Probable molybdenum cofactor guanylyltransferase
Amino acid sequence: MGQENAPIGVVLAGGRGRRIGGGKATVELHGRPLLSYPVEVLRAALGEVAVVAKADTELPPLPDVPIWIEPDEPRHPLAGIVHALAAAEERPVLVAAGDLPFLTAELVGRLARADAHGRPAVVPRAGGRLQPLLARYERAAAAPLAAALRRPDGALTDAVEALAPKVVEVADERAFFNVNLPEDLLTAAALMDRPDDRASR
């Protein structure tokens, strides 16, 4: 895969984090900002990573990580993906939500290397559901996703399904565990405290 076709890792951090009390990117899990987990995994797997955020998003220190500021409105995950595709200047992007502490470089690499067969996106499916917030988007996805964003009822999964993406089946759902609520932080910390997880970190 040539450098011009290699995806750039992009972590989406533009959400308000209301359900966790705000500041989701900086909330700590095991002594580290939550955002640092997907940032480090994408950097390890792809070599390049950027963060998409709103101008008012509170971010932890992220040395050597470009911050791509998306428009203030709308506040929608599609906005982050569309902005990432524009900022990547014709390169594909492999996006990950900023609240995925169990993301693995192995899975990121699998999505990065998957043959899209000419389709505009490579999207995993786990637990019977598409996972559009951990997916690879080609430049061809930009226009249809931007159009979906302009519709008042534009749901993320519906917009991505309409791309007819290449679907990659993923058996282990754990990589898609996301932190939305304070109790999710407790669950994530408990999972990380298991002996097998401590050995792998």
Q: What stands out?
A: Residues 8-200 form a domain with the Spore Coat Polysaccharide Biosynthesis Protein SpsA; Chain A fold (CATH 3.90.550.10). Residues 36-46 form the longest helix (11 residues). The longest strand covers residues 121-126. The CA atoms of residues 20 and 181 lie 5 Å apart.
